[in-house]
Amino acid sequence: MSILEITLKLLLAVALGGLIGLERESSQKPAGFRTNILICIGAAMMMVLATTILQGKETGGSELARIAAGVITGIGFIGAGTIIQARGSVVGLTSAATLWTVAVLGLVIGYGHYLIALIYSCIIILTLIIFRKLEDQFIKRTQYRYEIKTLHSKQVLSEIKKIALHEGLKFRELRLKNEEGISVITFLFQGSEERDQQFAHTVLGLENIKEIKID
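User: That's the sequence. What structure does it adopt?
Assistant: Structure tokens below.
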């Protein structure tokens, strides 16, 4: 395998991994642009290296399968790091699954199946973008009632509204009252469980949050 061919494979991994990473980055997910690029290019390089070393050997096919399986297993540990559990909510499953699929994409590129890699990338991006919109429209929505106790209510309320806007959530019955120096913000919204979990996790990361109750 020539240096030019290896370089082109790595550049293709950067391009396709970057496209998927852009979608993740624009959605402000845990694993974004650079993470997806590095995983894709790393998996591609592993397959290129394995193919070069095992070229001409009779057991090459089985050894390549083992190496590919090892890469996927390793990505499982990285994906686990993107899954966060906070107060009973699990966030980051889609990001972990995306990292796994991007690693597979890198292996496909490294092995030289360029057309399959392009088709596979398009399917991943369509799944992340279009199916998310379909999910928001057609999957059963649940009503969530929040009660948030906080300091410096005006600043925190502004941040909460920004988070809701990013997640595409519309508040109903928004109320703000003060209780012994603590501000209590209450509101309702309807959304999918995934959006509720992402919203709750982001709000928990804000400063001056004293308590959150979700019904």
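Helices lie at 3-26, 33-54, 60-81, 93-111, 114-138, 153-167, 193-204.
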